[in-house]
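Deviations from the work plan: none for this task. Representative record:
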Amino acid sequence: MIWAALLALLVLSLVAAYVPMGRMTTASGIIIAGVKSTLVVLLFMELASAKPLVRIAAISGLVFVIAMFALTFADVLARI
Amino acid sequence: MSDQSALLREPWLDFGRQREAGKFGIWVFLASETLFFGALMLTYTVCRIEHPEAFAAAGRETNVWYGTINTAVLLTSSLTMAIAAQASEASAQLRRLVLACLMLTAMLGLAFIVIKGFEYKEDIDKQLVPGAGFALSHPGAQLFYGFYWLVTGVHAIHLSIGIALVSRLFWVLLRRQLPAKDNPEIEVTALYWHLVDIVWIFLYPLIYLPGRAS
């Protein structure tokens, strides 16, 4: 089931990449990648049923990546 | 219980705690991997913001079929890996299923590397290696292919390590040196394998999908 959903999302992102929607075309690919990895993390990696300590360890990487992107974008996007 | 005592390692006195610690440890490592690949993807994003047309033109030169098939291969390998991990937790009767799924996972990983090899050959033939004689005229396109070679190369190294770990597990379990039931090595290897899959899930739209609509 999860596997079928992942492959369906892969096909969806491939098709969406050929539809001219301006910035939304790029965004759709990344959003679908986010949905796919959420499925993998929660169900294949069983984070949905993991203990709080494991969840904190898992989320810490994501938190620092978001901080890194936010701080960089605060500079880069202000220069355009 | 004899199975669990065969799996117990120093410094733990209790098997349950050993499993908890192993799982926590691999997640800390995976968080550091997230930052490693996150930094590479951030570099890509900044370059793409500065050279949008060049990145669209360069993305159009990648072979979207190799990329899509390889994504499907890796997603399927994550399924077989997840089945192996859950079967090992479920019952000692499922040892054969665990072994079959580990074998399939390693084979799918190898298939990914082989397909990637064909793709690299095509890229080299099309002169898509940054440097003298590069195929595309726009300077920003070289940045895209610099990222492409670096990040797919680093991903392939990660996947090769995964294939080695899964093959070793298959061999050790096949020779009954360790029991398959509740083996924490299966769980930890599976978590690493899934992360390598997730990295590719994000690389797929960044590498293969830019510039398709225009």
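Chain B touches chain A through 43 residues (CB under 8 Å).
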